[in-house]
Amino acid sequence: MQKESLSSKKGILLVNLGSPRSTAVNDVKEYLDEFLMDERVIDYRWIFRALLVQGIILKTRPAKSAEAYKTVWTDEGSPLIFITERIQKKLQKIVDVPVEIGMRYAQPSIETGIQKLVDQGVSEIVLFPLYPQYAMSTTETVIEKAEEVRKKKFPEVKINYIQPFYNRDIYINCLAESIKEKLPENFDALQFSYHGVPERHIYKTDPSKTCKIDEANCINSQVDTHNAYCYRHQCYKTTEAVIAKMGLPKEKTIVSFQSRLGKDKWIEPYTDETLETIPKKGVKNLAIVCPAFVSDCLETLEEISVEGKEQFQHAGGENFHYIPCLNDEDRWIEVVKILCEEKLNDFYLV
Ligand SMILES: C=CC1=C(C)c2cc3[nH]c(cc4nc(cc5[nH]c(cc1n2)c(C)c5CCC(=O)O)C(CCC(=O)O)=C4C)c(C)c3C=C
Ligand SMILES: [Fe+2]
Ligand SMILES: [Fe+2]
Q: SS3 letters for the chain?
């Protein structure tokens, strides 16, 4: 144990995706510009990304997205932001180091979060990307951004990153208990709808270059070098572990991927297509949960709870039961605390 580590002050930064400042079309446009110009989200060469994002997407999408945001916005603002703030406040009550939040896109930024910690004398930060599963567009982009900010503005600060936790027992138990508590008495199927990613992202992050995005590779295999970075694998493994914990048969569950954007092939099966076909296969009463998100947001409250419900009922489905994310549930805050404390202790091991 180094003396310096013991005397330096530690802190926690919780990082989530971020939301527009308001539902005004210009604010949504500014947010989408920063988000979609991230090379780990739309991974084309800069010139092609700029042509697609600024030349096409930003011409029409901001107005449409602003309307969607209006349906989930509350007096407290964006659900994603105020829920992350609630997690921060609850965590702050049970840990003895400062806790701040930062968003990958828009405000409060990662830089703002680090600055707030530094202003409190912190020089060693545990940064928690609030994504259970690894992807270029989740954990990787958060770490890249934080390192860029650290090197430029806070070279004296050390950051320890919490890795994806989709396979941690404490998280699986917490998610399983949370879902179990919210399940309706009668349901024909429980659907796990994860945010999608383009297939290309899975190929790009596979160090072994062996994943064929099929059942043998992503679903039935165990964690290995390729799966350490395979988002699709990690989503299936999350589901497998949760349903085993819940004692739910596999036949009663569905896995799907939502929120496609653009013309590329995204990982399948697609949530919207699934919702339109399952009623004809006898699923009339559906429960649905979105475990790629730890906090409710536009993609869960609007795309699933509102649009998804309409798609399902239009196709002949009857009862659609949306199961909220972990949000600021006490059992989840306990998990966040344990994961942060493990990394806080790592500083002593250097
Ligand atoms: C949970 C993990 C997420 C992954 C993986 C992800 C990938 C990804 N997203 C887009 C495009 C959009 N996503 C949008 C909203 C959004 N995405 C996530 C999370 C993941 N995205 C969240 C939590 C949210 C909601 C934010 C909020 O304010 O509530 C949007 C904006 C809304 C819209 O216009 O539909 C876009 C666009 C891509 C292209 C991508 C992977 C390449
Ligand atoms: Fe997204
Ligand atoms: Fe895979």
A: CCHHHHHCEEEEEEEECCCCCCCCHHHHHHHHHHHHCCCCCCCCCHHHHHHHHHHHHHHHHHHHHHHHHHHHCECCECHHHHHHHHHHHHHHHHCCCCEEEEECCCCCEHHHHHHHHHHCCEEEEEEEECCCCCCHHHHHHHHHHHHHHHHHHCCCCEEEECCCCCCCHHHHHHHHHHHHHHCCCCCCEEEEEEECCEHHHHHHHCCCCCCCCCHHHHHCCCCCCCHHHCHHHHHHHHHHHHHHHHCCCHHHEEEEEECCCCCCCECCCEHHHHHHHHHHHCCCEEEEECCCCCCCCHHHHCHHHHHHHHHHHHCCCCEEEEECCCCCCHHHHHHHHHHHHHHHHHHHHC
Say how many domains are in the chain. 2
Q: What is the pLDDT of residue 6?
A: 54
Q: For the chain, which ranges sit under pLDDT 70?
A: 1-7, 223-225, 348-350
Question: Can you give the pLDDT at residue 216?
Answer: 84
Query: What's the CA-to-centroid distance between 211 and ligand 3, angstroms?
Result: 5
Ligand 2 centroid to residue 350 C-alpha, Å: 35
- Domain coverage including residue 14: 10-163+330-347
Q: How far is the CA of 34 from the centre of ligand 1 (A)?
A: 12
Pocket of ligand 1 (CB under 6 A): 17, 19, 32, 41, 61, 65, 78, 80, 131, 135, 137-138, 195, 197-198, 259, 261, 292-293, 297-299
In a domain, 5, yes or no: no
| CATH number of domain containing 173 | 3.40.50.1400
ipTM: 0.95
Note whether residue 88 is domain-resident.
yes
- Examine the domain organization and report whether 123 and 68 are in the same domain: yes
- Tell me, in angstroms, the distance from the centre of ligand 3 to residue 229's CA: 8
Residue 318 and residue 231 share a domain: yes
Q: What is the pLDDT of residue 295?
A: 98
Q: Are residues 96 and 175 in the same domain?
A: no
Q: Which atom of ligand 1 is nearest to the CA of 61?
A: 34
Q: Which ligand is nearest to the CA of 299?
A: 1
- pLDDT of 54-92, one tens digit each? 999 999 999 999 999 999 999 999 999 999 999 999 999
Binding site for Fe(2+), by residue number, is 195, 299
Binding residues, by number, are 195, 299
In this structure, the answer to whether residues 275 and 318 fall within a common structural domain is: yes
